[in-house]
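Before we proceed, please read the two lines closing this message. Let me know whether the structure tokens fit the sequence:

…
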Amino acid sequence: MTKHIEFSATGGPEVLRYCEFTPADLAADEVQVENKAIGINYIDTYMRSGLYPTSLPSGLGTEAAGVVTKVGANVSHVNVGDRVAYAQSGLGAYSEIHHVPADKLVILPDAISFEQAAASLLKGLTVYYLFYLTHKVQAGETFLFHAAAGGVGLIACQWAKALGANLIGTVGSDEKARLAQTAGAWQAINYNRENIVERVLALTDGKKVNVVYDSVGQSTWLDSLDSLAPRGLMVSFGNASGPVTGVNVGLLNQKGSLFLTRPSLNGYITTREELAEASKTLFDFIASGKINVDVPESQKFPLSEVVRAHQTLESRATQGSSLLIP
């Protein structure tokens, strides 16, 4: 029998259950993938906790890499046996097999392993749209990026270095500061013992930055706004500390006619062509060695140990990406 993860009530990691299921019939535009490695992402905890509502019972996860085992009647660009990855499937990637819309799949180059793909595709596509589409990061530009030692953050540090840009990363410990700077951050701010805004002012000779990338949310909201130069762009793309609510739009005026956007991957990577271009850019960086997404053994969890995986992720004990292995 095929195994997957599902939950029937929202809450902490303990609501996740490892159980048998019978896959539905394959739709004409879908592909069946036998997952070899499954990406764990912070957004998965939002779905599980109920912050992002979904109908219950529900599967979890949108990202994995594996081998195509069946193709729907209308699918012509993917074949049985192809090595593929996906990051924008319907919920249910925490599973031994998953049905994925064919247009959401990328064919894996030989140089990219299943684990590298599952560790990097969602996070890498996120960095791609942030750095190329939401705001075009230029060589020599200095900007602020929160949670720089997280899964998205460590890819962002390496990507910024590859672009010749100066990423100032915020982190929660001196160890994570070292990690971020080793990955390519220009500077790191330990927010548990340094004032973010004061450090940004000092590092930029009082000019502040033109863009802040903030996936933390509630606890960094004001520091982010106060780190921006006049007419700067606040990119709020996550809520690890809780959502930003009750926004006083007048603050954007008071703090310098600031711009604010709340983007998501599905708002930017919408077609097969966009997905192909973005994933090629990411995989080229990985194949060339400019971006390393290898996952430590301590952050690879059997699919059956999903509860422990989520507990570990939410404890802030992880560095970079984590994986579930079916």
Remarks:
- The chain is about 30% helix and 25% strand.
- Residues 233 and 281 are 24 Å apart (CA to CA).
